[in-house]
Predict the 3D structure of the following.
Amino acid sequence: MDGFVKVATLGDLKEGATLTVDVNGTAVALFNVGGTVHAITNMCAHRGGPLGEGTLQGSTVVCPWHAFEFDVTTGECRTNPALRVACFEVRVEGQDIFIRPS
């Protein structure tokens, strides 16, 4: 399937929820924002905090370590525009969630 890997199901990731998965040794944080699934690296670009354990506020995740804010749809840091995190392409087929590892 063009390099995509199944990582979860929609039942694992309800709307407004977060989930951390391992994809080929890379920790990826999944977010369900308004029924759309987004995937970013789980490591905060500021000090390496686990973004998947952060608080999701709309399309913004707040890192639990130092409260840096990242847009889960673009990877852009709202706290410091010089920082960003990697985003992964997501596909949902039926109930299955797939991402394309980089």
Notes: Strands lie at 5-9, 18-23, 26-33, 36-41, 55-57, 60-62, 69-71, 87-93, 96-100. The first strand starts at residue 5 and ends at 9. The mean pLDDT is 95. The two ends are 15 Å apart (CA to CA).
